[in-house]
Amino acid sequence: MEEVEVVVAHHDCATLRVGDVFLKIDADQTRTDVEVEAMAMAPIPTPEILWRKPPVLALAALPGKALGRLGEPSTASSAAWTAAGAAVRKLHDAPLTPRPGRSVDELASSLDAECEWLVTTGVLPKNLVERNRGIAETVLRPWTPAFIHGDLQVAHVFVDGDEVTGVIDWSEAAQGDAHFDLASLTLGHREHLDDVIAGYGTDADLDLIRAWWSVRSLLAIRWLTEHGFDISMPGGEIDVLRSA
C-alpha cells in the first residue's frame, strides 16, 4: 500500500504525494487558475495535469530529482545547472502570460514595509537590513517584462542527469523582471551562477541578480516566520543577506 507523504503544508496550501501523483490543495483557486494557465503556455516541460476538482489539483510526478535545495549543497552537475539556465531563457523568450506582475512602486512599498518589520521586531540587526535595502535599490528601475515563473527556487527545477525534465509550482507566474527568476534559481547557490549564465546568455546583469537575492530574502523572512519555517538554517535567506 502506498503511503501519503506531506511534501509541504502551511496556512496557504498543502501538497501531498501518493505514489507518482501529487495532490495540491489550495483554498485560493486564483492561484490554481494561474498555475494551470501558465503550464499550458510555458515552452518548457511541466508536470502533466491528471485532473482538477477544486480545491485539489492532481499532477503527475516528474522524472529525475530536484536540482537542489536551499540550505544544502547541490549534487547536480554543472551541465545540469547550465541546462536549467537554458530552460529559463526559453521561458523568458516566450510570449507573455496575460497576468501582470508587481510594479516598481509596489515592490518598493513592500520592501519598505518588510524592512521596517524586520527592524522593529528585532528579527535582524538594523545595519544588516539597511545594507541589503541599499543593495535592493538596484532593481527599482523600469524593466522589459518577460514571462517569468515567479517562484523559481532551486527545488522547483527537476533534472535527470544533465537534462531538465520539468519545472513545478507555477502559481506565481506573471510578467516581470527576468533577473528575478535567475536570482531565485541561484539564491544560496552562488557557486552555480556562472553555470546558469552559461546556459542563459551573457546579457544577464550579474549586479541585478545579486540585488534580487537581497530583495527576495528581505521579502521572504516574515512569511517564512509566520508559516513555521526555519529562517536561520545554514545557506538560507539570513545567510544570503549576511553575505551580500
Automatic annotation (TrEMBL):
It holds the Pfam family APH. Residues 38-204 form the Aminoglycoside phosphotransferase domain. InterPro entries: AGP_Transferase, Aminoglycoside_PTrfase, Kinase-like_dom_sf. PANTHER family: AMINOGLYCOSIDE PHOSPHOTRANSFERASE DOMAIN-CONTAINING PROTEIN-RELATED, AMINOGLYCOSIDE PHOSPHOTRANSFERASE-RELATED-RELATED. This is Aminoglycoside phosphotransferase. It comes from Amycolatopsis azurea DSM 43854.
